[in-house]
Amino acid sequence: MNLLNPKLYKKDVEQEPIRAGFGRGLVAAGRNNNQVVALCADLTESTHMEDFAKEFPERFIEIGVAEQNLVTVAAGMSLAGKIPFVSSYAAFSPGRNWEQIRTTICINEANVKIAGSHAGVSVGPVMRVLPNMRVIVPCDSIEAEKATVALAASEGAAYIRLAREKTPVVTTSDTPFTLGKAQVLREGADLTMIACGPMVYQMLVAAEKLSADGIEAEVINCATVKPLDHATILASVRKTRAVMTAEEAQAAGGLGGAIAELLGEHEPLALARVGMQDHFGESGDPNELLEHFKLTAPHIAARARKLLK
Amino acid sequence: MTTEELAKMANTIRQDIIKMLVEAGSGHSAGPLGMADVFTAMYFVVLKHDPKNPDWPERDRLILSNGHIVPVRYATMARAGYFPVQELMTLRKFGSRLQGHPERLRLPGLETTSGPLGSGLSQAAGIAKAWQIDGIKNRRVYCLISDGEQDEGNTWEAAMFAAKYKLANLTAITDRNNIQIDGPTEQVMPLEDLRAKWEAFGWHVIEIDGHNFTQIIDACNFARTIENKPVMIIAHTIPGKGVDFMEYDFHWHGKPPNPEQAKEALRELRTLGGRIRSEHQ
Ligand SMILES: Cc1ncc(C[n+]2csc(CCOP(=O)(O)OP(=O)(O)O)c2C)c(N)n1
Ligand SMILES: [Mg+2]
């Protein structure tokens, strides 16, 4: 079975926005179960809800630019038996409506799935601290599609974080996906590299570079940031004894924070966290920004070499 | 139930509220006392529900958005037979099902979790919308909201949503008691012309005296006949109703009576209870 896209390390690797996979997954989920409904806050096309809206107009609910209402209406619909997916830009949902999510979805134990798109380098990890909330950060559009279908079939609240930009396709349609499972995408004994979202690609490319220098890194795709797959991660770090994380959001409180907490309690080891280091994003070409914030494979490989010295 | 019986029940519920608050040593007095008549009318006349089967799928839903007045809901539910009246004395105590603000999964029959203001109407509208999709016509959603929480944008987002989707199965009731924490609503953040606001947002509005059982029940019945629009019943109430030294005084929004004050309050309420009988003779 091919876990990885055969073209992964090639220049012409396929690229697609991760959110497009969410859109396909939502349509599939709608076909699987007629209780699935979709609610959007005036961003139907760019959060990729338009195909669902076309196929199931009676199950698509336009809320307008009102993110607090978006999640609270969804909470009510879930209490009446529906399986609501809500989408907006992550800055606004869960950025603006965090308290409503906390009260009406998490404490209420409502079965609402929140998609935050255009999450990018600016929007930080605010959902991991909420009890009853799962956090899913797919690495590519194929994984986003599988994750969306899986979430529809899995009772309980969840947040799925989606990047805006075209992202290299890392996995294949055969790559298994299980909510709550971290996946070793590349084996190695010298270093464990744990990533989520678009940074999985950057880490794999960094591992390929390191391999040329004789350093074999194990790369783990941690698509479920919460609940964290302790078993897979601890097994790997006990073998390699050195750990790196990478994410495109704030490293504090995000995947990097989660791994630091896990290691601190169970296996204190040297750790390097790649991610946004307590600053906001800015305007610019996305690749320029990744470079500026040192989120690309060459920077990651350099960090790895430093860590192993 | 006759109007006299309803008035007596509401009087008992007000006494329960005072006893609960003084026992808990914290909690809100003004709102719960002010809404005792509305709650009594809802649970004893208006709602289709079954206290012995709180999860009955076909029940009407009563969503309490302003969660801080939940002592009146607890007391009314106990009197309606949802749970033993003695349990009311556990309010706010460790391990109690009667949390200071309502939590859906703690006590059957609460429907939602609330406390943070402004998000109840949206949830009620979400339930109403789900039933509309499913073609369910034999149940209604009622939502109680306060006047203070109409400062919240989320309330007006819900107002637009419910009108857009013509949620005629939704009836909201505003506790128009003119107070909030920092003072009278019209000083903190003026809400008037409240009726015109809701009408402008596409709702059918009915204004009533929130202490007149006939008006409360008639308004809810009338709301059922309105097609294509959600209904807002603006219930004019007296905060602290029934306890002279609490009435109209915003300082009683969020504090309980001390034991001395509780004694006085109960004495007043018992006297009022006695008068109900003679008035109806
Ligand atoms: C979102 C939110 N902000 C602030 C509060 C704190 N708070 C609790 S009650 C209240 C006053 C609301 O006025 P109203 O509901 O009319 O009070 P009442 O008439 O019951 O005294 C405030 C500001 C809250 N519960 N939720
Ligand atoms: Mg008030």
Low-confidence stretches of chain B: none
Relative strand content of chain B: 5-15%
Largest beta sheet: strand ordering of chain B = 1-2-3-7-6
Number of strands of chain A: 14
What number is the mean pLDDT of chain A? 95
Highest CATH level, the class of chain B: Alpha Beta
For the record, the CATH architecture of the largest domain in chain A stands as 3-Layer(aba) Sandwich
N-end to C-end Cα span of chain B: 16 Å
Got a strand count of chain B?
Answer: 7
Show unreliable segments of chain A: none
Shape of chain B: globular
According to CATH, what is the class of the largest domain in chain A? Alpha Beta
Could you please say which CATH topology of chain B applies here?
Answer: Rossmann fold
Overall structural class of chain A, as computed from helix and strand content, comes to alpha/beta
Order of helices and strands of chain A: EHEHEHEHEEHEEEEHEEHEHEHH
Q: Would you tell me the overall average pLDDT of chain B?
A: 97
The radius of gyration over CA of chain A amounts to 19 Å
Most extensive protein-chain contact, per-chain counts: A-B, 28 and 31 residues
Trace the largest sheet of chain A across and list its strands: 3-2-4-5-7-6-12
- Determine the structural class of chain B based on helices, strands and strand pairing: alpha/beta
